[in-house]
Specification:
By secondary structure, this protein is of the alpha/beta class. It has a single domain, classed as Aldolase class I (TIM Barrel), CATH 3.20.20.70. The structure holds phosphoenolpyruvate.
Length: 252
C-alpha cells in the first residue's frame, strides 16, 4: 500500500514564534487522529528548521526543508547543504517547486543534480513539477510533465525511487484559488504512473506516492484525495492555518 502524505509548504512565512504556535496548534488538532500509513510534513523556512524539529519531536509531524544546494559545501553565499539539514534533524527536502523554477531559475538539469545530492545523503526528495497555464491551454501539459520527470529523475536507478515522493503541481493552480478538478488531477497522476511504469516497471510505478498541489483547501481536499492515483497533497496557503491544514489531513 502506498504511503499517503499531506505536506505543508510554509514558504517565506512564519517567524520563530509563529512557527512554534502553528506547530503546537497542529499537534493539538491531530494528536488523536489515527494516521495509519499517513505522514504529515511541514516545511518551515531554513532559520526555523532547528526549533521546529525540536518542537515536533515525538509528535505526528515531520519537519522537511523547502530547498537545498547541490554542492556538499563551499563558496555559495546564502545556500544550505544536505549535511547542514541533516545536522539539525531534517532528512527530507522539497525540490523544484515552481517558485524555485520561476523566480530562482532552477532548471531540470540543476534539479537532477539536487536530486542526486539528496539521495547520496540518504535523504528523501519531494520532487515538484507541473505545467504552466499556456501549456495546459495548448494541450501540451502531458509533454511538459513528461520532460520534467525524464530530465529530473529518469537517470535514477529503480532502487533510488524509494527515496522519491512526487508532487504534481500545475502552476496555474498554485496560490490562485483555481484548482485542477479531481478528474484532471487523476488523469495526470495516472499518466505519471504510466510513464514511470514504461521507463522502469510496475513495481516502481505502484510504490511511488504522487501528491497533488494547487489550491487544495478543506472544501475540495476529500474529493481530490479520493482519486485512485492521488496519494495526498502539497499544500501552500491552507497549510498556514492549523484549522484548515488539520481539516485537510482529516480528509485523507
Ligand atoms: C504550493 O505552493 O505548493 C501550493 C500548492 O500552494 P497553494 O496550496 O497555496 O496553491
Amino acid at each position: 500500500m502506498r504511503t499517503k502524505i499531506v505536506a505543508g509548504n510554509w514558504k517565506m512565512n512564519n517567524d520563530k514564534q509563529e512557527t512554534k504556535v502553528l506547530i503546537e496548534q497542529l499537534q493539538d488538532s491531530i494528536e488523536n487522529l489515527s494516521l495509519e500509513n499517513t505522514r504529515v510534513l511541514v516545511a518551515p523556512t531554513f532559520v526555523n528548521l532547528s526549533s521546529a524539529v525540536a518542537l515536533a519531536n515525538n509528535s505526528k509531524i515531520e519537519v522537511v526543508a523547502q530547498n537545498m544546494h547541490q554542492a556538499a559545501n563551499g563558496a555559495f553565499t546564502g545556500e544550505i547543504s544536505a549535511a547542514m539539514l541533516k545536522s539539525v534533524g531534517v532528512h527530507s527536502v522539497i525540490l523544484g517547486h515552481s517558485e524555485r523554477r520561476t523566480f530562482f531559475g532552477e532548471t531540470d538539469a540543476l534539479l537532477a543534480e539536487k536530486v542526486d545530492t539528496t539521495l547520496a545523503n540518504n535523504m528523501e526528495a519531494i520532487f515538484c513539477f507541473g505545467e504552466l497555464l499556456e501549456d495546459r491551454k495548448s494541450g501540451n501539459h502531458f509533454n511538459v510533465v513528461e520532460s520534467q520527470l525524464k530530465n529530473g529523475l529518469f537517470h535514477l536507478e529503480a532502487a533510488a525511487w524509494k527515496q522519491i515522493v512526487l508532487a504534481y503541481e500545475p502552476v496555474w493552480a498554485i496560490g490562485t484559488g483555481e484548482t485542477a478538478s479531481p478528474e484532471q488531477a487523476q488523469e495526470m497522476h495516472a499518466f505519471i504512473r504510466k510513464i514511470i511504469k514504461d521507463h522502469y516497471n510496475q513495481e516502481v510505478a505502484d510504490a511511488v506516492s504522487i501528491l497533488y498541489g494547487g489550491s487544495v483547501k478543506p472544501s475540495n481536499a476529500e474529493e481530490i484525495f479520493s482519486k485512485a492515483d492521488v496519494d495526498g497533497g502539497l499544500i501552500g496557503g491552507a497549510a498556514l492555518n492549523a484549522t484548515d491544514f488539520s481539516a485537510i489531513i482529516k480528509a485523507i
